[in-house]
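Student: Hello, beginner here. Can you help me understand the protein record under this note? Any guidance would be welcome.
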Amino acid sequence: MFYNIEGEKVSIRIKAQPAASKNEFCEIYGEDAIKIRIKAPAVEGAANKELVKFLAKSFKVSKSDILFKTGQNSKIKIVEFPLSDKFNEWIKSNYQ
């Protein structure tokens, strides 16, 4: 499973694809990550900033609440943020 919910926090394992034509969620990557395409290039942290912005907007959480647990300089990342109703709706409509 690409996400893990513990209490009021959720962490998701992401395969980031920078320099895409648009920001979007894609397919499950392997068995335990979700592929996310990001518009920004992987230069000087631009893709990570765009990823945080995309996740914050998608799940209605503050950008400052999104933390990189691992992989800040890697294509495979684990990010953590507060569990939101929007995330629960997204999981139910797409992955259950």
Notes: The chain has a mean pLDDT of 95. Residues 27 and 75 are 15 Å apart (CA to CA).
